[in-house]
Structure formats: C-alpha cells, structure tokens
C-alpha cells in the first residue's frame, strides 16, 4: 500500500493534468482529436491515484508481476502511439505544404505572364497626343 503522501501527490498531479487538458481545450490550444487521449490518460491517472489497487489488479490480470512494470509498459505503448500519430500528421502537413508551394509558384508564373502581357499591350497601344501640343 502506497504512503498517504504519495497518494496525495499522485492525485494532485493527475488532477492538475486533467485541468490543464480541459483548459487547453477551452482556449482552443489543443485540438479535440488529441484531447481525447489526454483526457483518457488523465482520468486513468486520477483513478489509479485514488485506487492504487486497480493497477495491481490489472497487472495480475495480464500476468505482469510488478504493477510499476505495467505502468512503464503502458507508458511506452501510449508514447509510441502518440509518436506514430504525430509522425503521420507531420507527413500529411509536409505533403500539403509542398502542394501549396507548387500552387503558389504556378499562380506567380501566371501573374508574371499576365503582367508581361499587360505591359506589352500598353506599349503597343498608340499614345494619344493632347490637342494643344
């Protein structure tokens, strides 16, 4: 059984993490699709902080002898999943940036061509002379 001090610290940290996620969502600094995993992790941490026996029960259920090993393994799996998701997002954003840069380049070429045509047209137009000159 963990010490009461450890339980209090765990609960405070878990609740602070949950409050941070909710506040980031409220201020629109965190997108909903990422917030779901952080809310689940925060709530799970609060539950484990309040009821540390849950971690021992789950560890026994899956055949892990030490609950802290389950905690480390779960953390690695979650970090791997988040890293994979963010890598996928970066790849999609890189592709989108490349495509947008190509579109901007093509638009700039069209604009330059139109400006050149306009300049050629203005030069070929006969200039009107003023009647007094």
TrEMBL record:
Pfam family of this protein, just one?
DUF2304
Q: List keywords of the entry alphabetically.
A: Membrane, Transmembrane, Transmembrane helix
Q: Where, by residue number, does the polypeptide cross the bilayer? A: 6-25, 37-58, 70-87
Q: What is this protein called?
A: DUF2304 domain-containing protein
Task: Please name the source species.
Answer: Pseudonocardia hydrocarbonoxydans
């Amino acid at each position: 059984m963990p010490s009461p001090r450890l339980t209090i610290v765990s609960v405070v940290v878990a609740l602070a993490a949950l409050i941070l996620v909710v506040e980031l969502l409220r201020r629109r600094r965190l997108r909903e699709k990422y917030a779901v995993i952080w809310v689940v992790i925060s709530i799970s941490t609060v539950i484990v902080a309040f009821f540390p026996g849950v971690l021992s029960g789950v560890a026994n259920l899956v055949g892990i002898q030490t609950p802290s090993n389950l905690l480390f393994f779960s953390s690695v799996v979650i970090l791997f999943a988040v890293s994979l998701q963010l890598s996928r997002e970066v790849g999609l954003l890189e592709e989108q940036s490349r495509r947008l840069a190509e579109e901007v380049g093509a638009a700039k070429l069209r604009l330059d061509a139109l400006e050149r045509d306009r300049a050629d047209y203005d030069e070929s137009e006969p200039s009107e002379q003023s009647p007094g000159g």
